Amino acid sequence: MEFRIREEIKAMKRYVAGKPISEVKRELGLETVVKMASNENPMGASPKVKEMMKRTLEDISLYPDSGSYGLRHELSLRTGRAMEEIIIGGGSDSLIKVISSTFLYPGDEIIMGEHSFSRYEDNAKLMGAKVVKTAMEDLTLHLDLMLEAVSDKTKIIYLCNPNNPTGSSFGKEELEAFLKRVPSSVMVILDEAYREYVTREDYFDALNYLDAYKNLIVLRTFSKAYGMASLRVGYGFADPELIGYFYRVVDPFDVNLFAQEAAVTALQDEEFLHEVVAENTRGKEFFYKELEDLGQSYVVTDANFILWDTQKDDMEIFRRLMQKGYIIRPGGFLGIPGHIRVSISTMDHNIGFMKA
Ligand code: PMP
């Protein structure tokens, strides 16, 4: 080929686009197809969000506010953190890219769990950095192993809590022990995409650690429990100086007007969020019981998905479930063959899935 493609890009895993549901239905001749693969919210977004979006239609000819003032203001009121400590991006995906490009030079290292969110790896490689993965034999993150892996090249450690794709989580004591030991020159990215679903009692409010640990960055999103994945809006908290740098990197109009307005409304509808979390907790209990009855060993989850060892060919299970109209994530795609990851859905769909 005539073009010069960067070696870092060539070394990345090939992107395989999934088919849209409409296409799967057409190909398989199915009336309904239930997607339980991407950890989306089966209850959708709050009805108030949808109303707000209709009203917002009037203003689509204007560029959105590049500083997402209204949303940062609302988040500031709700968390007690200053607006200068908050950044909004087009999904937390976008913020992971911003963080990688702010800190990483070629040859630097990042540390992440062996089975954790793939975008940490891809974005690090894009910058020419090396990815050091720590062992997760029991499918949970081991913060002590991450500390042991720190070298003078380490720039970032990614803590995904609850962790995708395993659903496992760590509590307050573990986080505090980690923060005390991690060198202050290493950025700690605490990705809490699924935090709203957490039910363990010893969970923490990560924002309480921002004052003491200037190297801590907390990422959250409206894509999961708030049911707004398609709107692309994620947010982060960090020291104001860092937020200032991140805002130099993020695309100025990354967060569209609908996303900003909808996110403010979503935060205000606390009742809807409670219903979503309660439905997820019911679904989780259902899966635990069913899997125990089947003698399958699963990872205890604090998220809206569950991973388990089927002891069978996961790709075959994936294909056969697809024929029956259920799309799940096979472990082969996640580097954990034999396992499947299933997003917890409404009880109707959970029951239908289990029958299938
Ligand atoms: N972090 C984790 C752990 C995720 O699972 C996801 C979504 N799959 C994201 C970040 C990105 O979410 P979004 O860009 O939709 O905010």
General description of the model:
- With 356 residues, the protein is of the alpha/beta class.
- It is built from 14 helices and 13 strands.
- The protein has helices at 7-10, 21-28, 47-56, 69-79, 91-103, 118-126, 143-148, 172-181, 240-249, 257-268, 270-294, 314-323, 331-334, 347-355, and strands at residues 34-35, 86-89, 109-113, 130-134, 154-160, 187-191, 216-221, 234-237, 297-298, 305-309, 326-327, 329-330, 339-343.
- A seven-stranded mixed β-sheet has the order 2-8-7-6-5-3-4, sandwiched between helices. The chain has a four-stranded antiparallel β-sheet with strand order 9-10-13-12.
- Helix 3 (47-56) runs antiparallel to helix 10 (257-268) and helix 5 runs parallel beside helix 6 (118-126).
- It is globular.
- 4'-deoxy-4'-aminopyridoxal-5'-phosphate (PMP) is lined by residues 39, 91-93, 117, 160, 164, 191, 193, 221, 223, 229, 234.
Mind sketching the topology for me?
Blueprint: H1 7-10, H2 21-28, E1 34-35, H3 47-56, H4 69-79, E2 86-89, H5 91-103, E3 109-113, H6 118-126, E4 130-134, H7 143-148, E5 154-160, H8 172-181, E6 187-191, E7 216-221, E8 234-237, H9 240-249, H10 257-268, H11 270-294, E9 297-298, E10 305-309, H12 314-323, E11 326-327, E12 329-330, H13 331-334, E13 339-343, H14 347-355
Parallel strand pairs: 1-11, 3-4, 3-5, 5-6, 6-7
Antiparallel strand pairs: 2-8, 7-8, 9-10, 10-13, 12-13
Bound molecules: 4'-deoxy-4'-aminopyridoxal-5'-phosphate.
Question: What's the short version?
Answer:
With 356 residues, the protein is α/β, with parallel strands linked by helices. It has helices spanning 7-10, 21-28, 47-56, 69-79, 91-103, 118-126, 143-148, 172-181, 240-249, 257-268, 270-294, 314-323, 331-334, 347-355; strands at 34-35, 86-89, 109-113, 130-134, 154-160, 187-191, 216-221, 234-237, 297-298, 305-309, 326-327, 329-330, 339-343.
